[in-house]
Structure formats: C-alpha cells, structure tokens
Amino acid sequence: MTRDFGLVTLSPRVPYRELPPVAAALSKQLQRDFAPEWDATGSVTAFTDVASMPRGHIPLVIRDMGREEYEGYHADENNQPYALIQADSTWSITASHEMLETAADPWGNALVAALSVMPEQGQVLYLQEPADPVEDNTYVIGGVHVSDFVTKRYYQTAVQDGERYSFLGTLRGPRTLDRGGYLTWLHQPSGLWWMADRFGEEIKFTQIEPSRAGALRAQIDRLTAPITPFRVPRQNPLRR
Q1: Is the pLDDT reported for residue 84 higher than 70?
Q2: pLDDT band at residue 237, thresholds of 50, 70 and 90?
C-alpha cells in the first residue's frame, strides 16, 4: 500500500523553508522504518500551498489552531483524509505521528481483535493507531525529531520471546503503554468505548463516547485532545 503526503504550512510561525528537510526525514521514516513493519510506504513532499499539491496526495497541514480545534485526523466533504498539525515547537513529531497512522489506515476506522487490557472484558476491538501507545517517544532522522510507533505484533495476544513491540523496542509486551501513551477499544457486548492511558504514573481506564458519524480516529482525536496534558516528548538517544 502506497500513500503520498503533501506537507504545507498556513502559519507564519513555521515558514516554508523549514518544510523540505522535515519532508525528507518523514519520507525516510516511512520507507525505511515503517514499511517493513506495516506494509505501508509512500513519500512526503513539501508544497507551498494545498492548491499546488497533486491529486491523490494526503495533506499534512500546519496551522495555528484555536481552542475549539484539535490536532489529528480529519476528512473533507469528499471523505478524503487530511491531518491538522499545531504550529508549535514539536510540529515535526506531530506530522510524523499523523503520517504514520494515516499510512497504516487512511480512513481512520481499522479495528484489531485482541484480549482487553482491562480485566474480565475478554476479546475487544482496538482502534489501530500505531503512534498513540508510545506518543512521547521520539528519535532523530537527519536532525529531525520523529515519532516512535508500535509494530503490528503489538496487537497480538501472547508474549513472544525476542519480539519487538515498538520500533524503538521500549515496550515490555503487546498492548502495554509507555509513559504518555494510550490506546482505545470497543467492548462489543456493551457497545462501550474505553481508553487506557499512562499520562501519570499508573495506567488509568476511562469510558469515552465517540459519535456514530465520521472516522473513528477523528472522533478519538477530538475526545482525547482536551484531556491530554501538554508534554515535552522524550527523545530516545537512538539516531538514525
């Protein structure tokens, strides 16, 4: 599966000259690191505006957002995906996060069956979001900070010796969380959605209520944005 992305800025805080080196780093991450794990590849190109972007490219749009807006996945009137990225000091990490998740699931609705991390729930359906469980973990490609991500084996049930559950290898097992990470799932018997987060020292479980309209990832991004505290992402010393 190949997905091409267009990186643009609508914010004076992030001038166009900053985009090409980030686009090159994101392309390298997608092709070299992500594709072997997720069978999803493509490219990222910097453009001066959305209008100059070729048909079929998925926009990654950097902009200044108000209190009612949120970073993350969106879809336009034709149900085509795009991502909004807050113009702040960590925008390259957010761009990497959104690129990886959209490459794995362009329409934001992919669910994966596995045992729940919540006791006595049995099998549930996890929303496939490769960057969320390791949200605060980053590494560097060509001087650009990018997001860590989980592997497909992250959603399996049994622990396997020698398996790597995230690209940086920091997770202890499938469906575990690093500090700052979270994951969401549907408990089918009750029809309820849940989130496990490790924003603090301990893992916390929260019932959430996405609407029935629009992509699931867009709903989760909207719901989690107000409760996710500001965090300075933790950089892994691995440089690639």
Answers
A1: yes
A2: very low
Q: Cα(180)–Cα(189) distance, rounded to whole angstroms?
A: 29
Rounding to the nearest 10 degrees, give the CA dihedral for residues 37, 95, 72, 126.
10
- Which is nearest to 133 in space by CA: 85, 179, 84? 179
Q: Compute the distance between CA of residue 91 and CA of residue 99 in angstroms, rounded to an integer.
A: 12
Cα–Cα distance, 138 to 238 (Å, whole number): 9
- Residue with the two structure tokens 């990886």: 100
Question: Taking residues 82-96, what's their average pLDDT?
Answer: 95
Domain count, the chain: 1
Distance from C-alpha of 112 to C-alpha of 206, rounded to nearest angstrom: 19
Residue 45: which of 36, 58, 62 has the closest Cα?
58
Residue closest to 137 by CA, chosen among 88, 196, 90, 104? 90
By the 8 A CB rule, do 61 and 51 touch? no
Q: pTM for the whole thing?
A: 0.89
Buried b (16+ CB within 10 A) or exposed e, 2-33: ebbbbbbbebeebeeebbeebbbbbbbbbeeb
Q: Domain of residue 90: give its range.
A: 2-239
